[in-house]
Amino acid sequence: MIETKANVADFLTHRSGLAPRNNIWNLEFGQVALEHRDAMPIVNNLEKYAIADELIMALSCELSWGVALKKNIFDPLAVDRTITSNESKLDNRAEPYMSLADGTPYHLAPRPQFEDGRIMQGAVGLQKTQHDINSEQPASAVTNPTQSTHTDISVAIWTGECLCFRLLVLSNGFANNDVSDWIGQMLLECVLDNPQKNDYVELAKISAKNYVARWPKIKADRERERIPESVHQPLALYVGKFYNKPENLYIEDSAEWRGT
Fold first, then answer.
1. At the top level of its lineage, which domain of life is listed (predicted)?
2. Which of 68, 193, 221, 243 is the right S-S partner for 250, CB 3.0 to 4.6 Å?
């Protein structure tokens, strides 16, 4: 049944609940570990977007996903500050940041490698501005089968199409928790008037505390896992590359002698 009846929309709408294995291809600070050709064999909760960008390339007969988007979507809508290149030359652009243990923002460099031609390009390879988002939204197709096309009332949720404003949640980095996702959840609670609202301030405090405590725990775990009374070999024997089982990540050890 799935093989004969399922379509691309079904795959894209049933991505929730799959095991998140982003660490297979997404390294620290947005560096990628796999090539674009490896997108489809890897099973994780973003692979459906890889299907979508492959279809865009195939159906548009373009050599590049980014070129297909620019030619068929961005240019007709006159959105000129939406890019699929990692090397952004736009002024007033957002830069990626992380938070240190004391909450101090830390600028990440080099920029994340997500872009046209890289793995999961359809999931995270797009950079755009608030102006471009507002320009694209009115041109978006109605894809939710439960959403009414004639009124602003849906059998599932009030879409608020008659509102005179649009609310965007923007984030240019991750703090000590996924605050941008939580803001979206909080807004949804308000729209639905959920009587059992979450205390996101308290959750943020707990999450930040756990995040800061995570790093000393990792160090302690590594020390605990050491083999007791083991004797290390000469450093020269550790020089080389040591791969994991999928052979997409490795640690490279080198030795440098500065004399005695």
1. Eukaryota
2. 243
